[in-house]
Amino acid sequence: MSVGFALLGLLEHGPRHGYELKRSYDDQFGHGRSLHYGQVYATLARLLKNGLVEVESEPGDGPDRKRYAITSAGVTDVEQWLRKPEQPEAYLQSKLYTKVVLALLTGRDATDLLDIQRAAHLGQMRELTNRKLTGDLADQLVCDHALFHLEADLRWLELTAARLDQLSAQVRKGNR
């Protein structure tokens, strides 16, 4: 996710301080992965430099604090970003595929590798399923997205295990 676009979108509700933006971001998108304050302020500085936000000073008892507001150019950028489809990822050369082929090339047991990976996937799926049970709707949707990807990986692991003898023969033939 682009942090810059997320912060711009959050600013469409009205001007906010950096710490308020961080809290809103963490509440909406940070489930298990909150932003660091440094990333928030570095992103705001970049947005300010690009004319997508502006600073409103807020007088008070202490030093003036900055409130950030989205500009019309920022609103336009968010609108364009939301309308642009994300590029589907095909995962044509995954690390997992590379590990299977290297295991075969080096005479290691690729079945063990697939079994270890399957166990890791199933463990992650259990954690996400438990998290879904206690999470709000947004958290449930995030978990569902991850679970569907893990399910696809598991199907690939099973298919690869079923074709391991064929793949091994092909790898050995190509390595001569």
From TrEMBL:
Q: Keyword set for this entry?
A: DNA-binding
Which InterPro entries does its entry note?
Answer: Tscrpt_reg_PadR_N (IPR005149), WH-like_DNA-bd_sf (IPR036388), WH_DNA-bd_sf (IPR036390)
Top-rank lineage group of the source organism: Bacteria
Q: Name one GO molecular function term.
A: DNA binding
Identify the Pfam families for this entry: PadR (PF03551)
Q: Which Gene3D superfamilies match?
A: Winged helix-like DNA-binding domain superfamily/Winged helix DNA-binding domain (1.10.10.10)
Q: Does the keyword DNA-binding apply?
A: yes
Which residue intervals define the domain Transcription regulator PadR N-terminal in the entry? 7-77
PANTHER family xrefs:
NEGATIVE TRANSCRIPTION REGULATOR PADR, TRANSCRIPTIONAL REGULATOR YQJI
This protein is called what?
DNA-binding transcriptional regulator, PadR family
Q: What species is given as this protein's source?
A: Micromonospora yangpuensis
